[in-house]
Specification:
B: about 280 residues; alpha+beta; Uridine Diphospho-n-acetylenolpyruvylglucosamine Reductase, domain 2; Enolase-like, domain 1; five-stranded antiparallel beta sheet; four-stranded antiparallel beta sheet; 14 strands; about 35% helix; globular; C: about 170 residues; Ubiquitin-like (UB roll); DNA polymerase, domain 1; five-stranded mixed beta sheet; 5 helices
Chain lengths: ~775, ~280, ~170
């Protein structure tokens, strides 16, 4: 039996090297097919009529004029009269037509009447006392929040018993909850909970105050402190703004079989979601995706519009219907990172040792409120008191955005700590270093990373106490932040076949988000089998292949690399058993290297890969490597440090980033080229949300004011400074196994840039994005305070 | 996003275009299309007839006409930005042109189309005003020369009559003057949050004459006459104080990116910087 | 009122009767079946739909198909003269100038326009030159490297061709 471990450094031929992506040629030549590019003959085009109001009840829908239009093949009401719509842009009616202009004309011919209801789109600080007092019966949102935020079972049960629920508890619901791993005790309490349907329609406070959490003795902690800093910090709702919008093409090869080409981060997870909505067996749903134009956490579900697309196709006799969101719908409805803000009080001893933390945080994730950011971030300050209030708003619902809740937590924590360092008259690098023992198991890595990042940044030469005292309006400063993430590989199944002719193929239900998943799988397989990458045929992105986890939370690389490694080692075991007699050796004495199968101790005793495979006889050898599985191939928990160097024009408020540094560990790197690329990309995305991005809603109308790329800004080529990325690839890190990398490096840039701006101009700009008017407002306040 | 249906004509000559335009009230002219097509896709404009000027030959020249340089209305932003003639004798317009959008937009967009649209944050109007350029409009009744100062009448409105087509822009040569276009690009749209075009004539350290056009701040681009008046005949040291009047008596526009007050403030800063730069560029 | 158009795309003539409101990008994708040209923002701000119109980079979401009547278009599928990749395409691959790849066709065609006008652009000229193309993933660092590498490749090949001609 093979021992399931990674090859030793000297034996790696591909793993850890800089390898060009295998799908490069199709992508640079325009031949890569995105779901949006699915273009079969007879394709119909979908469009969706969306609600213009932030909160309304649909009172009537008249589609008769649209239905009579030439070229209209199907009309589907998505939300019936009587439905309460909770955000602008929600789907009301979908149509399918022979071409897009006709579909657009039809949408405009549909008459929908609404009863407009009062809305709240503001995520401003909750008024004192908001969300307190006796809570009414729990809504589905309340329950989802409690479960989603890991509220202890005992508390959920007690809430259910005391408060009851506003919704009917169905078998489907309890089955689904069980599927998510909710305990029987909670499910039983839910079944037994008193049903208060009347409470569902009662007005509810938009504020959901979570239980306060206390650790140590915060009062004593603050009393013992020598220096205390207070401030307010935060980051607004931003959007995912995938360049390929959400959407899919759906068709029915037969009346109960659905085929979808969907832009998704989780191919294997789609059938069940379609099946539930369309009442067909999940096994009858086939989902396929070759390439995806960005997801960033927002593309895990078919969504309302995807289900409607499938329904339109059904009504149109099963013909393929494609519907991709328009840019405005994409920005309004298809992805929002929750906001998070906090009033923070943090204190230290005179030598900089952190002693106490207190935070009152709030934020919105749309109608269902939002999870709370992990505060204080990275540093386990001994004495803490923290409380979070989720604000329900009529904004589009939140979706996971690269490192959910962490960038917000970093902004709140790292900016508060930076302000405290300033009060302590300490260089933030020294101050952070002083407290690294509070960072838990990743402390050793931070201790290596922090000085390294400082060196790459030229911190010693650049740092100065707050406020650049040089002449002229341009002020320069540096700032830093630290972050952490899990990144353990998800469930994965790698079906690997070796054929008697020597060819090898792999089938996996995984998907490549552009991060280089295809390349990583082939690197692992080729390195393990001792054959070139191009000798292996890789098939991914289809539910015909063994299921694989969704690509979110930096879980893909750990999943696919470990399942592939296991599959390759299992396959070699079987192959060696067949080949050993011919080489007059024991299977355990063989190895696959350089396109041969050979005796380890005597490499000249060998068969070529092809000759070896011929020993398989008539049947191919086929194995499925799994994750989780035997051997410690993956791990979780990484640490990283981000630093920024900025210039601020104090006359205009414009912030220019001069340089960014990312120092990151992620265990064993499979492909250094794509790993570094993740970090570079994350730094740039960080600059984008630090300086530009914000979903702006009009408090009066409840509508989004920038649902387009004319006013919703993504960083461009001209905004990007010198970037330095350093991966911690020493053996100690590599021995931990493979850990995901998509999320971590995007966490720190916002806080690091905010701290650099504070260092440059001498005053904190409390909220991201650091727009010119906010910078000038902070400077003005500073002047007033000084005068 | 798809525009509403419309009819389309692509006349080969200016006369044909003028005749077509006069025959239909619901027609719009299409040049590069980079202002009109986005508006049509958003259904902010739904003309029944589009008259595409793109096939009319000979309207994209940039030539020396003695005292002035004449620019055909269909000259693209890219052509204006790269014109050796303009760069040598009247660079301000080229300086403004190279700040418009990006390569792709500059390859398509035309000076005539941009001026006719009169976007409050477009770049050309500031330069056209500071240069005291003339705009030639042609209709069935002949040519009419409209001075820049009376051309822009409001947000998206000009002195053009419905039957007129811009055919030429005439800009004076500015040899002996320093010219600068300074712009704060809107980080997303690329339009001017504030754009200041300055023409400064003067000997070392002294300003003989000055013209300043400002775009992006108000509903319509304007001349900063208060700054100009405060600087004529004054030493360069007067710039800082004078520039504070860059948005005097101006009702500033505000949006979710930049408030009216912020735009007024920017107008002052950019006016000061533009003047200082223009003066020093002149000295070189 | 539909119009007949004749557009040469990647050297091949395409004739069709189209509504005047049909955008060039839709003509390319749906009439000519060339899906390498993508729509991103729909409002000529992201550059994903960039193609070459008579050799010049334009955003095909803001050009009507009727405006391209009689003209010649190069899309990403037609950039390389042969089976091989164009040097810019090679450079984007080798330098990892792409992740999801959705913006890549537009990036490459815009870089082509830039390199036609300026064979050896500086880093700043590259950033300005293709500044109208957005990448969300975001690979700007490697995109700049790719354009630099493409410039070197193209200049080298030109010199080699010139030597061969001597």
């Amino acid at each position: 039996m093979a021992e399931y471990k990674w090859p030793a450094p000297a034996e790696r031929t591909l793993i850890g090297k800089r390898i060009s992506r295998v799908d490069g040629a199709v992508k640079v030549s325009g031949h890569a097919k995105y779901s949006y590019d699915y273009n079969p003959k007879g394709l119909l085009f979908g469009k969706v009529l969306r609600c213009p109001h932030a909160h309304a009840r649909v009172t009537s829908i008249d589609t008769s004029a649209a239905e009579k239009m030439a070229g209209i093949k199907a009309v589907q009401i998505v939300q019936k009269p009587g439905t309460e719509v909770l955000w602008q842009g929600d789907d009301i009616v979908a149509v399918a037509a022979v071409d897009e202009p006709t579909a657009e004309d039809a949408i405009r011919a549909i008459q929908v009447k609404y009863e407009v209801l009062p809305h709240n789109v503001s995520d401003a600080e909750p008024p004192a006392g908001a969300g307190e007092g006796p809570a009414g019966p729990m809504t589905e949102d309340d329950l989802e929040n409690a479960l989603g935020n890991q509220v202890p079972d005992a508390q959920v049960i007690s809430d259910l018993q005391k408060r009851g629920v506003t919704f009917q508890v169905t078998d489907d619901m309890t089955k689904e909850l069980k599927g998510y791993g909710v305990s029987d005790a909670v499910i039983n309490a839910l079944k037994a909970a008193a049903y208060h349907p009347e409470a569902a329609s009662q007005p509810r406070s938009p504020y959901q105050k979570m239980a306060a959490q206390t650790q140590g003795d915060p009062d004593k902690g603050f009393a013992s402190a020598e220096v205390t800093s207070e401030g307010v910090y935060g980051a607004p709702v931003i959007t995912h703004c995938c360049l390929e919008t959400h959407g899919s093409a759906a068709e029915w090869p037969s009346s109960d079989h659905l085929l979808v080409h969907c832009s998704t981060q989780g191919v294997s997870g789609l059938p069940d979601q379609y099946a539930q909505a369309l009442k067909i067996p999940a096994g009858n749903v086939r989902a396929h995706q070759d390439h995806i134009g960005g997801g960033f956490g927002s593309k895990f579900s078919p969504d309302r519009w995807g289900i409607a697309t499938a329904q339109l196709s059904k009504s149109a006799g099963g013909k393929p219907v494609k519907y991709m969101l328009e840019r405005d719908s994409e920005l309004m409805t298809a992805g929002a990172r929750p906001s998070a803000y906090a009033r923070v009080k943090v204190a230290a001893k005179g030598d900089g040792t952190l002693v106490a933390w207190q935070s009152d945080s709030w934020g919105t994730g749309g109608p269902a409120g939002a999870g709370s950011p992990p505060l204080p971030y990275v540093f386990e300050i001994p004495n803490q008191r923290k409380q979070h209030t989720a604000v329900r708003t009529n904004q589009g619902p939140a979706r996971a955005w690269r490192a959910p809740n962490h960038p917000q937590a970093a902004v709140i924590t790292m900016c508060a700590l930076d302000d405290l360092a300033h009060k302590l008259n300490m260089d933030p690098v020294e101050f952070f270093a002083k407290n690294l023992d509070m960072t838990g198991p990743r402390a050793p890595i931070y201790k290596e990373e922090l000085p390294l990042a400082a060196e790459l940044m030229g911190w010693k030469q650049k740092w100065h106490p707050r406020g650049d005292k040089s002449e002229g309006p341009i002020k320069r400063g540096v700032g830093l932040s630290m972050h952490t993430w899990g990144g353990r590989g998800h469930a994965s199944n790698c079906l690997l076949s070796i054929h008697p002719d020597g060819s090898v193929d792999i089938k996996m239900g995984s998907q490549d988000l552009g991060t280089g998943t295809r390349t990583a799988i082939l690197i692992v397989a080729a390195d393990s089998l001792g054959i070139p990458m191009n000798a292996i045929t890789l098939n991914i992105g289809d539910t015909m292949y063994p299921p694989d986890g969704g690509s979110g939370g930096s879980t893909t690389i750990g999943g696919v690399s470990s399942s592939t490694r296991r599959a390759a080692l299992m396959a070699l075991d079987q192959l060696f058993a067949k080949v050993a007699p011919a080489l007059k050796a024991q299977p355990a004495d063989l190895e696959a290297r350089d396109g041969t199968v050979r005796v380890k101790s005597e490499p000249s005793r060998s068969l070529s890969w092809k000759q070896a495979c011929a020993k398989l006889g008539a049947m191919p050898l086929s194995v499925t490597g799994k994750n989780p599985g035997p051997g410690n191939l993956i791990n979780s928990g990484v640490g990283g440090v981000g630093m920024a160097d900025v210039s601020v024009d104090t006359e205009t408020g414009i912030v220019k980033v001069n340089k960014m540094v990312a120092v990151q560990d992620c265990g064993l790197v499979i492909n250094l080229k794509t790993a570094e690329s993740q970090c570079y990309g994350a730094l740039i995305m960080g600059i984008s949300y630090a300086l530009y991005e914000e979903k702006v809603l009009d408090p009066v109308t409840g509508r989004m004011l920038n649902p387009n790329m004319e006013f919703y800004r993504l960083a461009g080529l001209r905004d990007i400074p010198e970037l330095m990325v350093h991966m911690m690839t020493d053996p100690l890190n590599e021995n931990r196994g493979v850990i995901g990398l998509g999320e971590p490096p995007v966490i720190s840039p916002g806080a690091a840039i905010s701290n650099a701006v504070a260092n440059a101009i001498g005053v904190r700009v409390p909220f991201l994005p650091l727009t010119p008017d906010r910078v000038l407002a902070a400077l003005e306040q500073q002047q007033k305070a000084g005068a | 996003m798809i525009p509403a249906s419309f009819d389309y004509e692509s006349p080969k000559t200016l006369n044909e275009a003028i005749t077509l335009l006069a025959s239909r009230e619901d027609a719009k002219l299409l040049a590069g299309g980079h202002s009109l097509l986005p508006a049509m896709k958003l259904r902010l404009a739904s003309p029944a007839l589009l008259i595409d000027l793109g096939r009319i030959g000979g309207l994209d020249y940039i030539r020396d006409s003695g005292e002035t340089i004449s620019i055909g209305a269909l000259a693209t932003h890219a052509a204006v930005a790269a014109s050796r003639l303009l760069l040598a004798s009247s660079p301000l317009l080229a300086q403004a042109a190279c700040n418009i959008g990006d390569i792709q937009v500059r390859n398509r967009g035309t000076i005539g189309g941009s001026l006719a649209q009169a976007h409050p944050s477009a770049d050309y109007p500031a330069a056209i005003l500071a240069l005291d350029a003339n705009i030639v409009a042609t209709s069935q009744s002949g040519e009419r020369v409209i001075p820049a100062h009376s051309f822009f009448t409001g947000m998206f409105t000009t002195a053009l009559r419905p039957d007129e087509i811009i055919t030429e822009i005439r800009v004076p040569k500015t040899a002996g003057s320093g010219t600068v276009y300074k712009k704060f690009h809107h980080p997303a749209s690329g339009y001017a949050v504030v754009g200041v075009a300055a023409v400064v004539r003067g000997a070392t350290g002294k300003i003989d004459d000055v013209a300043i056009g400002i775009t992006g701040v108000a509903e319509v681009a304007y001349r900063a006459t208060a700054v100009e008046d405060a600087l004529r005949g004054k030493p360069a040291s007067a710039i800082a104080e004078a520039a504070k009047h860059a948005a005097d008596k101006v009702e500033a526009l505000g949006d979710n990116y930049a408030s009216g007050d912020y735009r007024r403030h920017l107008a002052q800063v950019y006016t000061r910087r533009a003047l200082q730069e223009a003066l020093s560029s002149k000295r070189k | 009122m539909k119009k007949n158009v004749r557009i040469v795309i990647n050297g091949a003539e395409h004739r069709a009767e189209v509504e005047p409101r049909l955008l060039l990008v839709h003509f390319l994708r749906e009439v000519a079946g060339l899906t390498g040209t993508h729509i991103g923002c729909e409002t000529s701000l992201c550059g994903a739909c960039t193609v070459l119109l008579d050799g010049m980079a334009v955003k095909s979401c803001t050009v009507l198909a009727v405006q391209a009547d009689g003209r010649s278009i190069t899309t990403i599928e037609g950039l390389a003269a042969s089976e091989n990749l164009h040097p810019i395409q090679e450079a984007f691959w080798e330098e990892h100038g792409l992740q999801c790849g959705y913006c890549t066709p537009g990036m490459i065609l815009c870089a082509h326009d830039l390199l036609q006008q300026n064979a050896s652009p500086s880093e700043q000229e590259i950033r300005d030159g293709i500044g109208g193309n957005l990448c969300r993933c975001t690979g700007y660092q490697h995109i700049v490297n790719a354009v630099k590498a493409a410039s070197r490749k193209m200049n080298q090949r030109q010199r080699a061709a010139a030597r061969a001609a001597d």
